[in-house]
Structures are given as C-alpha cells and as structure tokens.
Records
---
Amino acid sequence: MTVRLRWSRTLAGEGADTTPAQQVVNEIAADGGRAVANYGNVAKYDEAAAMIQQAVDTFGKIDIVVNVAGILRDRMIFNMSEQEWDAVIAVHLKGTFNVCRQASSRFREQKGGRFINMSSSSAFGSPGQPNYAAGKSGILGLTWVLANSMRAYNCTANAILPSGWTRMIDAVPRTVQQVMKETGKMPSETAAGTERDPENVAPLVVYLASDDAANVSGQCFASFGYSISLVSQPQVVKTVRNENGWTLDSLGALLPKTFGEGLAVPVPLDDGTVKTIGLNSHRGDIAEASWMEVGHGAKFWKIDLPPYGETR
Ligand SMILES: NC(=O)c1ccc[n+]([C@@H]2O[C@H](COP(=O)([O-])OP(=O)(O)OC[C@H]3O[C@@H](n4cnc5c(N)ncnc54)[C@H](O)[C@@H]3O)[C@@H](O)[C@H]2O)c1
C-alpha cells in the first residue's frame, strides 16, 4: 500500500494551490493507498511542525521526510533584491531545517528515519542564482550534519540533485523559449515518458527510503534523465606545509608552484557569465568506450575507469 504525504503551494510558493497536491492524493487513493495533502508553508516553523504532526496523526508515525519544496527568484548578484534573497533562502534552507528539525526528534525517539533532501547542481555556482545556489549548498551541509548526528539513532540522510521539466522549469525563460519554439508547448507538458520526465527521479528517492539503503548516508546523488551519478564529497586534494609558518613572500613564491598548478580556469559562456563547476560527467559527455556493461540494460562509468575516449 502506498502512503504519501504531499504538500503544495503555487509555483511561486505563495498562497495555497490545492490542485496538484489533491491530484496526487486522488491518484494514490485510486491506487488503493492513503495520502493526505497539506497546504502549509515550510518556511514557517510552526507550519512545518503542523505538517509533521498531521503525518503522525494520520498515519500513526513518520518514517521518511523528502524535502522537495522550492521556488526560484533568479537574478545576477548585482541586481538581486534583499526580498529575493530572503524568499529563496527561507523556502529552501530554512524550510529544510524546519521539516528536519521536527522530524528529527520523532526519528530520535523511535530510533529510525530517513531524510532525503533536494539540493541542485546549481549549488556549485550557477551564475544567475546566488540565492538558490547558496540555499542548495546549505542543504548539502545540513544533510551531512544530519547523516553524522543522526547515525546513532539509526537514521540516514542523503541529498539528491534532481532534474526534470517540472512547473519550476516552466518559469525558466531560456528553456521555455527553446521548448516553445520546438514544440509549441511548455517544458512540463512535453516531459512525460522522456528523459526530461521528473518521474525519472522517483525510483532513487524510493530506494533511499527503503531498507536496502540502510547503510547509504551522507551521500549526494545527481539524477539527470536516465543517469544517476554519485557526487564526490569535498576532499583535500593538495596541502603545502611550512614549519616556519607563512609570510606573504613565501606564499607568493610557493603557491603558484604548488596549488597554482592545474587550477581549473572558469569557462566563459556566451552571456558573459562562466560555466558552473563540477558535474561534467553525468550529462552524456562520456565516450562510449569508457562505459562498462553492468546488466539490466545499464552501463557504468567511474572516475578511475579510463578517461573519456580511451579504451580499457
Ligand atoms: N526541476 C529541476 O530540474 C530541478 C533541478 C534541481 C533542483 N530541483 C529542486 O527539486 C525540488 C522540486 O522542484 P520541482 O522542479 O519539482 O518544482 P515544482 O515547482 O514542480 O515543485 C516545487 C513545489 O514546492 C512547493 N512550494 C514552494 N514553496 C513552498 C513553501 N514555502 N512551502 C511548501 N511548499 C512550497 C510548490 O507549491 C511546488 O509544489 C525543488 O527543491 C527544486 O529546487 C529541481
């Protein structure tokens, strides 16, 4: 039986828009499951508390939280208003905290639970999204804290960088323009059954919530179309140590020879901004010969397999 709690507001995150949430509730009910909608605002501490309480009142307990609420207010840093910054940080970062905070005390008591948090590849520096990137980076940090602090209570916490043509993407002018030109439809109207279908993310969410993933925690997965990628955790890659301490002179003399070598230079884009760092390898730019067949019709690539284009 499917049991789902779904909350929904308008795309812009303002006011209650009952339709999408109620549609999902109806679909689950038609499938023989139980679900309930909630129209509260995750950015508000008390309303997030009421959501968790509603889940407990309806289903007897809560085992899994998936933090999925999100809004966009895209703008270059030099044009961004304080309100645009605050609104996005409130929904993404504070909203994720609010829900996790409420769920965590229940998880601690019952010694079990799953946190699944939606971050974004934008976290790695999307030029026109300072508020969104900061919020989504914050969610990664919070997810690692949850993984570390709630491990003792048999909980896991993981982040997903999802992708799909949803209502949110219908608000991204460049994508809308391109898809409209090609199909005459909004992106979300063309996604079903294709690589852009947001349903491609769902199996990963359910897997992370399942017993099979009891030892998967503190990880960040990128889901892009039919690819699922594991993103490395930040790690120290170079260290230079000076027993005498550092001066500006010694730094100036040594850093170019040590850290300075091989630093990635930001790649300029047509619009004057630069390419987001990271995540180069889950978007279809892996040469055919670098993949390994692993069954179930799937192929696999990892960083220590031969580099792009080289055969084994
Ligand atoms: N679609 C993508 O390609 C993509 C890429 C990276 C990350 N994400 C992230 O995935 C998550 C889901 O996004 P989506 O693409 O399905 O967008 P969506 O607009 O379809 O869904 C977001 C939902 O959040 C709800 N919401 C907004 N503000 C809220 C609030 N204050 N309280 C409660 N609910 C609120 C909206 O009503 C909507 O139902 C978001 O966190 C988004 O940032 C999406």
---
Amino acid sequence: MDSLEEYRQKRNFNQTPEPAASGDALPAFPPGVEGRFVVQEHHARRLHWDFRLEAEGVLKSWVLPKGLPREKGERRLAIEVEDHPLDYLDFEGEIPEGNYGAGQVLLQEKGFYVLLKKEPQKIKFALQGENLQGAYLLIKTGQAENHWLMIKYL
Ligand SMILES: [Mn+2]
C-alpha cells in the first residue's frame, strides 16, 4: 500500500502549491546519518509546528501544537499525522483558503538526523540542524492512537 495515499486524498493539487509527491530522488546525505528532518511553522486555523523525519522513502510527520521542546527535560505533545512526500522538505508557501491546512507555511529548520534507537513505541534520535541540535525522544503516550510525546533529553 502507498503510504502517501492519505496525503494525496486530502489535497487538490490544482489549488494548493504543496508538492504532489513527484517521487524524484533527492541528493544523498552524509554517512552515519539516517535521513533528513524539517520543522515547518504552519499558520493554519490554529498555529502549530510540523516536524518531519525522513524514513522509508517518505516523511513521517507529527503536529506539535506548542512547537519542539527547547530545554533539556522539556516534553511536548506530538500528534502523528499522514506521511508526506520527500518534496515537502523544501516546501514553504501559502496554502489558499478553502484548502486543507489553509494558511502560511514557513520553513523553520532543516537538517539531518542520526537514529539512536527505534522501537514501535519509541524513537531516539539526534538532530543536526543549522540552529537546532540535540537529542530527542519520541514516545507513544498510549492515551490516543496518534499521540506521542517529544522529549529533549540532551
Ligand atoms: Mn501543518
């Protein structure tokens, strides 16, 4: 099954400037790195931050209503949402009114991540961004199917 089906179904690519999942290959990343990540500030009906990790050829995505944790020990709710295409790493722009996620999307941070541990309920990784560095944990809360906590631990 194509994990980008939900992404496509939610959008009308004649109306939104968001990428339509081209499938184009991206340049390789440095050795030791698991993939890329991006943080997008999304001025939708409700301001939130989108955090995306490259894995299995797509961007695994979470919505963080309050943004990423900044201080060591801080934890923030992260709601898992539909996979996004790799093209979304560079997306910045205005999603027009009447479309899914209408509002401005700003690229806040972009870089690579090193995978430290991966279990079905827990992902441990280090971010190497231009302004953002640190080690984080994403852990399923068990309170709702798609609810995770993002914790900065280093
Ligand atoms: Mn969003």
